[in-house]
TrEMBL record:
GO BP annotations, alphabetical order: post-transcriptional regulation of gene expression
Domain ProQ/FinO, first and last residues per copy: 5-119
CC per GO annotation: cytosol
This protein's UniProt keywords: Chaperone, Cytoplasm, RNA-binding
Chain intervals with Basic and acidic residues compositional bias: 117-129
Record organism: Salmonella enterica subsp. enterica serovar Montevideo str. S5-403
Residue ranges, annotated region (Disordered): 105-129
Entry protein name: ProQ protein
A molecular function (GO) term: RNA strand-exchange activity
Matches recorded under SUPFAM superfamilies: FinO-like (SSF48657)
Domain of life: Bacteria
């Protein structure tokens, strides 16, 4: 095996997957729902490539599937895809509902963080002025 560069972050792994499997993973725009069990397919197809470990693949997959882009793509009528972009069944209602809930929670966290930052800015401005 030739000496391949190691991918250090989950974002780098996702970029590699989007390049290697363009009909499945996307680096921008709306992401398509992935086949259930796609992790095992990934291990079989890219195991050892780019010095990727199972842990790195799992972490990248977790980051990808929890992104807002991915969660927006999990909607009624959407079809799951395999690594080659082939349809692998429609989403179940419970998966659509789970994605909707995750997206709502993520948006609420961001909103709370922004409100906290604004409050700190106001406090700092009041203390300085």
């Amino acid at each position: 095996m030739e000496n391949q560069p190691k991918l250090n972050s989950s974002k780098e792994v996702i970029a590699f997957l989007a390049e290697r499997f363009p009909h499945c993973f996307s680096a921008e725009g709306e992401a398509r729902p992935l086949k259930i069990g796609i992790f095992q397919d990934l291990v079989e197809r890219v195991g050892g490539e780019m010095n990727l470990s199972k842990t790195q693949l799992r972490s990248a997959l977790r980051l990808y599937t929890s992104s807002w882009r991915y969660l927006y793509g999990v909607k009624p009528g959407a079809t799951r895809v395999d690594l080659d972009g082939n349809p692998c069944g429609e989403l179940e209602e419970q998966h659509v509902e789970h994605a909707r809930k995750q997206l709502e929670e993520a948006k609420a966290r961001v909103q709370a963080q922004r409100a906290e930052q604004q409050a700190k800015k106001r406090e700092a401005a009041a203390a300085a002025g």
